[in-house]
Design a protein that fits this description.
137 residues, alpha+beta, 6-stranded mixed sheet, 6 strands, 19% helix
């Protein structure tokens, strides 16, 4: 970014042992692994945040809205510090982020047991995505 102030936001993601929108349950162990992996990706400048969750798992650069600068586990919740980028996707997320209808979720692949728990040994992390959650009527 030029001389402009960085546009950073704090995002609260997955909560330990609670089902996500897609029914996945992440244990403390899995979240700790995610923090380690995402911080490693951040150091390599590969921890990207997409505007939308890619249905086919392909992370297209045209959808990149930001990058994760830091990931922590606070009180059983994954917390990310995200720098929004000067891309079309980044600008559109900034406009709608302060609505309660937007959340951040990991883009990951792996096995899930019969109860929806993520199997840590098989987890492959790709990044994060902002997801629009329309209000339930």
């Amino acid at each position: 970014m030029s001389d402009e102030k960085k546009r950073e936001i704090v995002c609260y993601a997955i909560k330990r042992d609670e089902p996500t929108q897609n029914g996945r349950i992440y244990s403390q162990h899995v979240l700790e692994k995610m923090v380690y992996e995402f911080n490693k990706m951040s150091q390599q400048r590969r921890a990207l945040v997409l505007k939308d969750n890619p249905p086919d798992g392909r992370m297209l650069l045209t959808n990149v809205a930001g990058k994760v600068n830091d990931t922590q586990l606070r009180d059983g919740r994954l917390v990310c510090q995200v720098e929004l980028l000067e891309t079309e996707a980044g600008k559109s997320i900034e406009d709608m982020f302060f609505s309660e209808d937007v959340s951040i979720e990991p883009v990951a692949f792996g096995k899930v047991d019969d109860f929806g728990h993520v199997v840590p040994e098989d987890l492959k992390l790709l990044g994060f995505s902002f997801v629009y959650n329309p209000p339930k009527k």
